[in-house]
Design a protein that fits this description.
- The complex is a heterodimer.
- Chain A is an alpha+beta fold.
- Chain A is built from twelve helices and 13 strands.
- The model of chain A has no long low-confidence stretch (mean pLDDT 97).
- By secondary structure, chain B is of the alpha+beta class.
- Chain B folds into two domains: 73 residues, Ubiquitin-like (UB roll) (Roll); 78 residues, DNA polymerase, domain 1 (Orthogonal Bundle).
- Helices cover 37% and strands 14% of the residues of chain B.
- Chain B contains seven helices and five strands; from the N terminus they run ββαββαβααααα.
- The chains are: A alpha+beta, B alpha+beta.
- The interface between A and B is medium-sized, with 29 and 26 residues.
């Protein structure tokens, strides 16, 4: 029987209250939202926080809205809500592609967007997709608010730049007309972590790739992005030659480790192939060729 | 700490440690052993219960987090002596063999049918993809859910169901 180590439980009534509770309890306090990653770690005693601050009552963090040219996603929005959101699918198909392959529908009912980012699992799909989109994370503390690019949030496996008394309140994504995006994952079985996964966000100017974001999950790419590949294909024609170049460069850019999901060379080849396929889908969607 | 929950329409209040998981609260504190306890790693789905109408894996939720919320377990599916259509479906279509996964399967499936009364087989399979069954190969479970979709509440009495099952 797996039981977490003892801790104090607090329920926050507002964002300010959550911050005050974190300050009172000090560095060994943790926020808990869906708990779908933190509780399993606590049950295995890999995590032993002295206090948990439950933020599930902060319904103000549980909404999705568009303001100006930005799509705002509250940190407490759960995976199932993101997947069900028409406005999310309208602007970023990559998020729906990714959500469909994250865990299973029951887990998706609890796990949250903010929790996925803060857990900083290098194999996690949503964090990678948000990095491809070049989203921003809004973080609040008693000193005020700061905004950090998703690509700079995670500083290493299971590590972020979020301070002990800070809370992620929302994710902001740029809305830009003419954007196509996609996410492709290969896993051993439904709901499992990726062997490798790739995501692409593309804008075309005529037949030329005018802007591109590429992410790679579970294969050791720094910050889960393929930055050198992005630079290499930006400004090139959206054709097979460019796709082949992207595949080759993404495979070189990642640094997978061998584990029970497969040997490193297989994962590297997979990362390249998935980069090509997901780029192709994103480009097709950009052109309105695929529903 | 004190935890108050409404389970299957009945209020319960207990004094527990904050670290108690909902599955153990239901089974050990309230004696509702219809909710099963399986892998303990949120993979198998035998511990699924509904919290405010949504299925969750109760081994991966603190009882403290459920305080103030409404929970439905397999014991709450039957209403006024009538089996829920999903229970009738599992009976008629032989949706179980050992029965260990069945409570979680039925609570996930009843949520699916609430949200989507006419699911395709693909939608049924996706909905139950977080619930593992090692006996049936899922075929009969999908048939059971489909049966329930085709026979919504009050369209069949339990007596009629038993006749069908016996024939």
């Amino acid at each position: 029987m797996q039981v977490p180590a003892p801790f104090e439980y607090e329920r926050a009534s507002s964002v300010d209250d959550a911050i005050a509770l974190l300050e009172n309890h000090g560095e060994d306090a943790r926020l808990i939202a869906g708990g779908q990653s933190l509780l399993p770690l606590m049950k295995l005693r890999f995590a032993e926080p002295e206090a948990l601050v439950d933020i599930n009552d902060l319904t103000e963090l549980r909404r999705i809205w568009v303001a100006g040219d930005q799509l705002h996603i509250g940190a407490l929005v759960c995976h199932a809500e993101l997947l069900a959101s028409a406005v999310v699918g309208e602007h970023y198909r990559i998020l729906h592609d990714a959500e469909r392959v994250i865990a299973d529908p029951v887990v998706r009912n609890r796990g949250t967007v903010g929790g996925s980012l803060c857990h900083a699992d290098p194999a996690e799909d949503l964090s990678a997709a948000l990095a491809a989109i070049r989203g921003e994370v809004v973080i609040r503390s008693s000193g005020g608010e700061r905004v950090v690019p998703v690509r700079e949030l995670q500083t290493g496996p299971f590590q972020t730049c979020i301070g002990p008394a800070e809370i992620v309140t929302e994710i902001r994504l740029p809305i830009r007309a003419g954007t196509g995006s996609a996410y492709t994952k290969v896993a051993r079985r439904v709901g499992d972590y990726a062997i490798a996964a790739a995501g692409a966000v593309v804008r075309l100017y005529g037949d030329v790739i005018s802007d591109v974001g590429l992410c790679l999950a579970a294969v050791g790419a720094p910050h889960s992005v393929a930055a050198r590949t992005e630079d290499a294909i930006r400004g090139r024609r959206a054709d097979d030659e460019t796709l082949d170049l992207a595949a080759q460069m993404a495979a070189e850019e990642c640094d997978p480790t061998a584990d029970q999901r497969g040997p490193a060379d297989y994962k590297r080849a997979l990362a390249g192939e998935l980069t090509k396929r997901t780029l192709r889908t994103a480009i097709a969607r950009c052109r309105g060729e695929e529903a | 700490m004190q935890v108050s929950v409404k389970v299957n329409g009945e209020e319960y209040t207990r004094e527990i440690e904050p670290r108690m998981l909902l599955v153990h609260f239901l089974r050990d504190e309230l004696g509702l052993t219809g909710t099963h306890w399986g892998c303990d790693t949120s993979n198998c789905g035998v511990c699924v219960v509904q919290v405010d109408g949504s299925p969750v894996k109760s081994c991966t939720l603190l009882a403290a987090m459920a305080s103030g919320h409404e929970i439905r377990t397999v014991e709450g599916l039957e209403q006024n002596g009538e089996l829920d259509p999903i229970q009738q479906g599992f009976m008629i279509e032989h949706g179980l063999q050992c029965g260990f996964c069945t409570p979680g399967m039925m609570l996930t499936a009843s949520w699916l049918l609430d949200a989507n009364p006419h699911p395709t087989d693909g939608e049924i399979r996706e909905a139950i993809s977080g619930n593992l069954c090692r006996c049936t190969g899922y075929e009969n479970i999908v048939r059971a859910v489909r049966w329930a979709a085709e026979h919504p509440q009050n369209s069949t009495t339990t007596a009629e169901t038993e006749e069908v099952a016996a024939s």
